[in-house]
Amino acid sequence: MKALVFQEPGRTAWQEVPDPGIKDPGDVIVRVDVVTVCGTDLHIVKGDLPEVVPGRVLGHEAVGTVVESGGDVRSVRPGDRVLVSCISSCGRCRFCRESRYGQCRGGGGWVLGHSIDGTQAEYVRVPFADLSVHVLPSTVDSADAVLIADIFPTSYEVGVLNGNVRPGDTVVVVGAGPVGLAAIATARLYSPARVIAVDLSPSRLAKARELGADAVVNAAEEPEMLVGDLTDGLGADVVMEAVGVPETFEMCTRMVRPGGRVANIGVHGKPATLHLEDLWIKDVTITTGLVDTSSTPMLLRMLAAGRLPTSSLITHRFELGQMEEAYEVFSRAGETGALKVVLGGPRHDDLAVSNPSRVQRA
User: Fold this and answer.
1) Which of 95, 122, 311, 347 has the most beta carbons within 10 angstroms of its beta carbon?
2) How many CA atoms within 13 Å lie on the side-chain side of 111?
3) Do residues 202 and 334 lie in contact, with contact meaning Cβ atoms separated by under 8 Å?
4) DSSP designation for 110
């Protein structure tokens, strides 16, 4: 099969690799029908996550069709169209029993495209399938559903829930990329008094307005002053960092009010300064987090009911074999206007088989 393989920092290749097979009885093999690229993938390619070894197939988000299942799998069967979650859960360790699947110590957590081969391929092996894939209703579009694999649960759990957004709050989201925009949309579920979006891109700020931001401000135009003006000098109740660079994290800590919350969502590849000389007296709560995807079933129900604006985040579509072109477009978002790039599309051939070798390869 073909897959996108990490070669070394700065270099990937869409190349032939061995087909995946069942290794454990809880595994499934999924034919990838729709996949997307995440900002975390770009961090890997840049070398920010050195634990990802050369030769790794990248990707941790997909919608596809089960073509083979291990003997212990009970929740899905060959032919089922499923969402492949970015997080795998053993279901047995201490953290999984607390629904903190991102911290799984039983072989799960963020493994796809990280410590095992991922979803940017024609086929993928998914471990712990009973807890790590979700059957999709026929009414849900595959391209919409793939955004529930990572960015919506990440923004909701690591941003909105960790930030403890409450009715009447002033919420600032720094970074209006896909995750920041999803944070704006899901923060609105809790009736904040206002949501303020901060970014350098006028097109992303316009999209933030479309998704419910009450005010937008260019990051180069003193956003801290605007937040102060709108809060009588107090600062925001909740500030979410959705970029992943030191400057934006430090900006967030300057915009939060005494007793407020800073929810870091961004993936950081460099150290950021924590100015405790200013913060120690302010009773500020700072949270970090890897998504657990415990909210995925709820978000899928909302998607099926038409309550999540997933389609509006998709800006570019490609065939699966155009993976390298999709990365190029996504990595130059400032020039291309890319938010989420989606690869693949609906497939209509019969997939009720037990062995992927019997399926016509893409």
Assistant:
1) 122
2) 19
3) no
4) S
91: left (phi over 0), alpha (psi -120 to 50) or beta: left
Compute CA 86 distance to the chain's CA centroid, rounded to the nearest angstrom: 7
- In the chain, what is the straight-line distance between the N-terminal and C-terminal CA atoms, in Å? 8
DSSP symbols for 152-199 = HHHIIIIIIITTT--TT-EEEEE--SHHHHHHHHHHGGG--SEEEEEE
Which of 326, 358, 268, 354 minimizes the C-alpha distance to 58? Answer: 326
Structure tokens at 90: 């053993």
List, in order, residues 6 or more apart from 350 with CB less than 8 Å away.
none
Cα angle: 120, vertex 316, 360; to 5 degrees: 40
CB 147 within 8 A of CB 155: no
**What CA dihedral angle connects 233, 237, 243 and 244, to 10 degrees?**
100
Q: Which amino acid is at 173?
A: V
Both tokens of residue 346?
Answer: 């609906």
pLDDT in tens, the chain (362 residues): 999 999 999 999 999 999 999 999 999 999 999 999 999 999 999 998 999 999 999 999 999 999 999 999 999 999 999 999 999 999 999 999 999 999 999 999 999 999 999 999 999 999 999 999 999 999 999 999 999 999 999 999 999 999 999 999 999 999 999 999 999 999 999 999 999 999 999 999 999 999 999 999 999 999 999 999 999 999 999 999 999 999 999 999 999 999 999 999 999 989 999 999 999 999 999 999 999 999 999 999 999 999 999 999 999 999 999 999 999 999 999 999 999 999 998 654 444 344 444 343 33
Q: Which pTM does this prediction carry?
A: 0.94
Q: Which residues have C-beta within 8 Å of that of residue 81, sequence separation ≥ 6? A: 33, 63, 64, 65, 135, 136, 142
- Would you give the DSSP letter of residue 63? E
